[in-house]
Every structure is written in structure tokens, then in C-alpha cells.
Design brief:
Layout: E1 6-10, E2 15-18, E3 36-40, H1 44-49, E4 60-62, H2 63-66
Antiparallel strand pairs: 1-2, 1-3, 2-4
Length: about 70
Amino acid sequence: MPDGCLDLLWDGNRLFVAGPDTAARWRQSPAGTTYVALRFSGGLGPTLLGVPANELWDRTADLEDLWPGRSGR
């Protein structure tokens, strides 16, 4: 559900950021997929990630795309 938070997620293969949502979204995952997540609330996510929250509204992006090169690895 929409909560205005940014989440950093690991699915065992990739690290990605789920931006603040304006509506509920469904994500299809293979059976048995496990996620580990870190939630940034209260405006902390954009500050720590260096990406304005509005660039991630209703979007999921690989961390490597937001932090290209060495810093993303």
C-alpha cells in the first residue's frame, strides 16, 4: 500500500530500490523467492541514496542504475 517510503531490497540476485508509491502495486516473483528489505522513512531514503523521491515515484530501479560504476557495487 502507498506509504511514502523508499525501500532497499535484495532478492538474492539483485539489489534494487522501490520508490514511494501513489497506489498499490503487484510484483510477480518466482515461487520460493525471499526478500530482505530495509525501509527508509521520513525523507531519509532520498538523502542517503542521493536520488530525489519524485524520480522514483511508482517505480522500481536497480541500485546499480542509480549509482553507476563502483559506488553501486
